[in-house]
Structures are given as C-alpha cells and as structure tokens.
Write a structure and sequence with these properties.
5 strands
Length: about 90
C-alpha cells in the first residue's frame, strides 16, 4: 500500500513523500508505518487510539476517521495534517 506523508511528518520518513506499508485496515497500516518509522504513529493517533483532531486521512478519495476502516480495494492512503498558527 502506498502512503502519502505530509510535509510536517517527513522528518520521520527520511524526507520521503510516499512510503509503502502493509495492513488490512488503516490502523494496521499505521502500526506498520510505526515499525518502519518509529514515532510516526504517535503524531497521527492519540493516547485513546483515535486519529488526532488535526489529522485527516483519505483512502483514495474517501475521508475516514475510523482506524478499523478496511483497505480492501484501496490504492492509496493519504495522510494530511492541518497546520495552525497564531
């Protein structure tokens, strides 16, 4: 599975924009990413096991918030991180 990584998280992936990960669900893919790139999952998933409020994930063109979302038939996972400032 191809996973697009947002600019703020690329320091975890050695500045790679797109990485590969395995898993049948979004949660499994995030766990695989964390094995490859330690610390990445914590920036996407909070302590309660939910996507952080400022993170959006698309499976192809469908936005999802559920880590149990199936990746059956999905070609690409896109992680986007909202930026804020003040």
């Amino acid at each position: 599975m191809q996973v697009r990584i947002p600019t703020p998280l690329r320091s975890y992936t050695g500045d790679q924009k797109v990485v590969s990960a395995d898993g049948d669900t979004l949660g499994a893919v995030l766990l695989d990413l964390d094995e490859q790139f330690p610390g990445l999952r914590f920036r996407v998933v909070d302590e309660q096991g939910r996507l952080r409020k400022h993170v959006n994930v698309w499976l192809d063109s469908e936005r999802v918030r559920d880590l149990s979302a199936s990746l059956d038939g999905v070609g690409e996972v896109v992680i986007m991180q909202a930026l804020s400032g003040g």
